From TrEMBL:
<feature type="transmembrane region" description="Helical">
    <location>
        <begin position="233"/>
        <end position="258"/>
    </location>
</feature>
<dbReference type="InterPro" id="IPR000276">
    <property type="entry name" value="GPCR_Rhodpsn"/>
</dbReference>
<keyword id="KW-0472">Membrane</keyword>
<keyword id="KW-0812">Transmembrane</keyword>
<feature type="transmembrane region" description="Helical">
    <location>
        <begin position="46"/>
        <end position="68"/>
    </location>
</feature>
<keyword id="KW-0297">G-protein coupled receptor</keyword>
<dbReference type="GO" id="GO:0004930">
    <property type="term" value="F:G protein-coupled receptor activity"/>
</dbReference>
<dbReference type="Pfam" id="PF00001">
    <property type="entry name" value="7tm_1"/>
</dbReference>
<dbReference type="GO" id="GO:0005886">
    <property type="term" value="C:plasma membrane"/>
</dbReference>
<protein>
    <submittedName>
        <fullName>G-protein coupled receptor daf-37-like</fullName>
    </submittedName>
</protein>
<feature type="transmembrane region" description="Helical">
    <location>
        <begin position="80"/>
        <end position="100"/>
    </location>
</feature>
<feature type="domain" description="G-protein coupled receptors family 1 profile">
    <location>
        <begin position="61"/>
        <end position="339"/>
    </location>
</feature>
<feature type="transmembrane region" description="Helical">
    <location>
        <begin position="285"/>
        <end position="311"/>
    </location>
</feature>
<keyword id="KW-0675">Receptor</keyword>
<keyword id="KW-1133">Transmembrane helix</keyword>
<feature type="transmembrane region" description="Helical">
    <location>
        <begin position="323"/>
        <end position="342"/>
    </location>
</feature>
<keyword id="KW-0807">Transducer</keyword>
Length: 362
């Protein structure tokens, strides 16, 4: 996650032309314009079509997950953690379907094309700005919390697999709630701080067109290096490589332990029957953790691999950013399908919900 993308509005055509002026002086103006237009077209396709479709489908899927969890019961620690993760995914998916953000970005005349804002009265524009900032803050809060909860899932499964006899004593519903709330509280201040990195302005252009827009706040400008350093080397690190590493290593440990336990059972002719956590629960939760590690690991790798493009500030880096964010949105949308495909209990609950709805309509 990168809050820096919220604070700077760029003129795509100008930034692309500037790069070409430095690197390809022999390219004609017509060619540069065509390339710029193509990149702008790609951004529009991603932001206006691809991401909203993913966001809508993901929001519907997460709402169904909430319904299944309520039917299943929220006393089970794993269900409590899944509930927290589903809430984080819902918050994450606010931005791709945030019409306030999309209108501020794209609904402009030629005179106001360089602004991130709304062409309306000052009071209405200010209201839209506040609503958009609240929704964006929730988006970042959910995005950051969603990187910590897979770690909680992994640790919960480690206790279930390595300490099955003591699992019910170690992992309780109260401790699961405490772990989920702790993750949300940890990321809350940083997510809320991002809301203060933009200021609202209202201006009347020489053409007579009025617009309320957002620009980088004085707080960001005067502390840019501090904010950039915290964002890039602390919070991005804590929301990418740290959870990905913990989740990956934990899943490997769980896989090795489960395989070893199965082999031991096969070798024992008369093993004692002991109460162990369901393997389907482990399979489901590990699948969720692995999907998270794969997608966020890919996100981090792509960011590191394309650092030159970010330094040169090319339009290609903007397109790449949105492609990476689309992967994150897909990750926040697919957990529902994992629950239904790998866990028969959730699948039966979902079928029962639709059968009940069908009978009521009939």
């Amino acid at each position: 996650m990168n809050i820096g993308n919220l604070t700077i509005t760029k003129n795509i055509t100008e930034s692309w032309t500037a790069v070409f002026n430095m690197t390809m002086n022999t390219v004609t103006d017509k060619t540069k314009t065509e390339v710029s237009r193509n990149d702008d077209y790609r951004l529009r396709i991603i932001l206006l079509y691809v991401q909203p479709i993913v966001g809508i489908l993901g929001m519907v899927a997460n709402i169904l997950t909430f319904a299944m969890l309520i039917k299943s019961g929220l006393k089970k620690p794993s269900n409590i953690i899944i509930f927290g993760l589903t809430l984080a995914d819902c918050f994450l998916l606010i931005t791709p379907i945030n019409i306030f953000d999309l209108t501020a970005r794209f609904l402009h005349s030629k005179e106001t094309a360089n602004y991130f804002g709304w062409e309306c009265s000052e009071k209405l524009a200010r209201f839209l700005s506040v609503v958009n900032r609240v929704l964006t803050t929730l988006h970042y809060w959910g995005g950051f919390a969603g990187t910590g909860l897979p770690v909680v899932i992994t640790l919960e499964r480690i206790f279930a697999v390595f300490f099955p006899m003591k699992f019910a004593t170690i992992v309780t519903s109260r401790r699961a709630i405490l772990a989920v709330v702790s993750v949300w509280l940890f990321w809350g201040p940083w997510a809320c701080f991002s809301a203060f990195l933009r200021d609202f302005r209202y201006t009347v252009l020489p053409s007579g067109q009025s617009i309320g827009y957002e620009k980088s706040a004085e707080l960001l400008i005067s502390n840019f290096l501090v904010v950039q350093t915290l964002n890039r080397y602390v919070f991005n690190f804590l929301s990418s490589i740290v959870p990905v590493s913990i989740v990956t290593f934990g899943c490997v440990m769980i896989g090795v332990k489960v395989k070893h336990s199965l082999l031991q059972r096969q070798r024992m002719s008369s093993a004692k029957k002991t109460k162990r956590p369901s393997l389907k629960t482990t399979r489901t939760l590990v699948a969720i953790a692995l999907i998270f590690a794969t997608v966020h690991g890919t996100y981090f790798t792509m960011t590191c691999a394309m650092v030159d493009q970010y330094i040169n500030d090319t339009t290609f880096s903007l397109v790449l950013d949105e492609i990476k964010l689309t992967l994150i949105y897909v990750c926040g949308s697919c957990n529902f399908f994992v629950y239904v495909l790998l866990n028969s209990k959730f699948r039966n609950i979902l079928i029962g919900m639709f059968q009940k709805t069908h009978s009521e309509l009939a």
